[in-house]
Amino acid sequence: MAYGLQIRDEESGYNKNLFCIPKHYEEDLERVFIPHGLILDRTERLARDIMQDMGSHHIVALCVLKGGYKFFADLLDHIKALNQNGDKSVPITVDFVRIKSYCNDSPTEKISIVGEELSTLNGKDIIETGRTMKALLSKLKDNEPKMVKVVSLLVKRTHQSPSYRPDYIGFEIPDKFVVGYALDYNEYFRDLNHICILKEKAKEKYRI
Ligand code: IMP
Ligand code: MG
């Protein structure tokens, strides 16, 4: 079973004034929760673990948009670095699928999936209940891939029993709503490097 870096429930993160934050978001953020550098360091190790397990299989890397795009790009950069510096390498092709399952800070009833070709390795932003991932996996099965592995940067410890666990996990985080590093609140905050916690008044400000 995969384990991610555990971030405890009591963890409050870091003073945002000690980091570089875009001016337009300064008043919206409470704390920096996972600094960008730590995300990259953990991603580098995930890349190594994945490549060790993949053997010589050709990889189709499938990015789950939009929230997974930063993680996907950084993970692939690390995998490419291993491919060009190690003694073995595997070919990688990329694909993209777009899923929408959230509005404000809550799940929507309907999960919409947009995307044509669906195949092997999955780069995902965050798994809360696993509802979104299960919907995607059942669609992936129609294409009869040889093997499907799911990599999620974050897994949230929710009070609901987790119905799905990915094959690779970056961090296991408390049940808090987080933004940044491509994770959004109504499309805002994707353009923020660190994973951060929002102020309550920011949720009001950007609510739709
Ligand atoms: P699940 O279907 O309950 O696993 O929720 C996963 C999806 O909900 C993610 O792909 C995100 O789009 C969204 N989501 C869940 N928690 C957060 C969060 O803390 N910040 C931003 N988006 C989130
Ligand atoms: Mg979202």
Architecture blueprint of SSEs:
Layout: E1 5-6, E2 29-34, H1 36-54, E3 59-65, H2 69-85, E4 92-103, E5 106-114, E6 121-127, H3 131-140, E7 149-156, E8 168-173, E9 178-179, E10 195-198, H4 200-205
Helix pairs in contact: 1-2
Bound molecules: inosinic acid (IMP) and magnesium ion.
Descriptive account of the structure:
The protein has 208 residues and is of the alpha/beta class. Helices cover 25% and strands 30% of the residues. The chain has 4 helices and 10 strands. It has helices at 36-54, 69-85, 131-140, 200-205, and strands at residues 5-6, 29-34, 59-65, 92-103, 106-114, 121-127, 149-156, 168-173, 178-179, 195-198. The strands form 2 sheets. It has a 7-stranded mixed sheet, with helices on both faces. α3 links the parallel β6 (121-127) and β7. The longest helix is centred in the N-terminal third of the chain and has 19 residues, at 36-54. The radius of gyration is 17 Å and the shape is globular. The termini are far apart. Magnesium ion is lined by residues 67, 102, 184. Inosinic acid is lined by residues 67, 101-102, 107, 125-133, 177-179, 183.
Features:
7-stranded mixed beta sheet, 208 residues, 4 helices, 3-stranded antiparallel beta sheet, binds inosinic acid, binds magnesium ion, alpha/beta, 25% helix
Strand content: 25-35%
Bound molecules: inosinic acid, magnesium ion
Strand-and-helix sequence, N→C?
EEHEHEEEHEEEEH
**What is the topology, as strand order, of the major beta sheet?**
1-8-7-6-3-4-5
Classification by helices and strands: alpha/beta
Helix share, percent:
25-40%
Tally of DSSP helical segments = 4
Distance between the termini: 39 Å
Largest sheet: 7 strands, mixed
Shape: globular
What's the Cα radius of gyration?
A: 17 Å
